Automatic annotation (TrEMBL):
This is Amidase domain-containing protein. One of its GO terms (molecular function) is catalytic activity. PANTHER family: AMIDASE DOMAIN-CONTAINING PROTEIN (PTHR11895:SF109), TRANSAMIDASE (PTHR11895). Residues 82-196 form the Amidase domain. InterPro entries: Amidase, Amidase_dom, AS_sf. It comes from Strongylocentrotus purpuratus (Purple sea urchin).
Length: 197
C-alpha cells in the first residue's frame, strides 16, 4: 500500500526547492490530489491478474546431465505434446529460455533468476502447441503410431539474451559442436547448437 506525503513533508520539499509554498493552503490541495491518485493506484493490488489456462499437460522436466547435454545447449528438458491438428506434425521443438513455459524453470541465462518457474505459457508456446497434428506413421514392423508437435525442452541462452557469443550463460558456456574453438553465437546459442546436432 502506497501512502501519500504529509503536509509537513510537502512543506519540507517546497523549502528545499525554494518554491515558497510553506504554510499555504496550496499544499493541502496538492496533498489531496496526490492522495486521490494513490487511492486509484492502491486499488490495483485488489485486481486479479489475468491469465490464460495452461492447455496441454506436461512432465515436470529436469536439468539434463552432462552426458545427455555435452554442449550445454539444453537448459531444461521436458515433454509437452501438442494438439491433434495443425501444421507442426511430428516436429520436435525447443523453446528459447527467454520464453515462459508453465511449470518449467526459466532463468534467461541469468543465475539471479534461477528457481523462477512461470505458471503460464507465453502466447507463442500455446500457438506452437495448437499447431500439432495427429497422423498415422507406418513403422518398420507394421505398427501405426500418432505423431504430434512436441516441445522437448528449453534451449540455453546468453545472460539476459545480451551477448553475441556463447560464454555468458549462468549455466556455463555453450560449446560449438562443429568446431570447439569457435563460439556458438548468441543470444540464441543453445538454439543454434540444437538445430546443428
Amino acid at each position: 500500500m502506497v501512502t501519500g506525503p504529509t503536509v509537513k513533508e510537502l512543506e519540507d520539499i517546497s523549502a528545499e526547492l525554494n518554491l515558497g509554498l510553506e504554510g499555504s493552503t496550496v499544499l493541502k490541495e496538492y496533498q489531496s490530489v496526490i492522495n486521490d491518485s494513490l487511492e486509484m493506484v492502491n486499488q490495483l493490488d485488489d485486481l486479479v491478474e489475468p491469465g490464460l489456462p495452461v492447455k496441454y499437460p506436461r512432465t515436470p522436466g529436469y536439468r539434463p546431465t552432462r552426458e545427455e547435454n555435452p554442449h550445454n545447449a539444453w537448459y531444461y528438458k521436458c515433454r509437452i505434446v501438442g494438439a491433434d491438428n495443425g501444421n507442426l506434425s511430428g516436429k520436435r521443438i525447443a523453446i528459447k529460455d527467454s520464453i515462459a513455459v508453465a511449470g518449467i524453470p526459466m532463468m534467461i541465462g541469468f543465475s539471479g533468476l534461477e528457481g523462477y518457474v512461470p505458471d503460464f505459457d507465453a502466447t507463442v508456446v500455446t500457438w506452437v502447441l495448437d499447431e500439432g497434428k495427429l497422423q498415422e506413421v507406418p513403422m518398420m514392423i507394421g505398427r501405426v503410431v500418432s505423431s504430434r508437435g512436441i516441445i522437448l525442452g528449453k534451449a540455453t541462452c546468453e545472460e539476459l539474451c545480451n551477448s553475441a557469443n556463447s560464454y555468458t550463460s549462468g549455466t556455463g558456456p555453450i560449446t560449438n559442436p562443429l568446431n570447439p574453438r569457435h563460439c556458438a553465437g548468441g543470444s540464441s546459442s543453445g538454439c543454434a547448437v540444437l538445430v546443428s546436432v
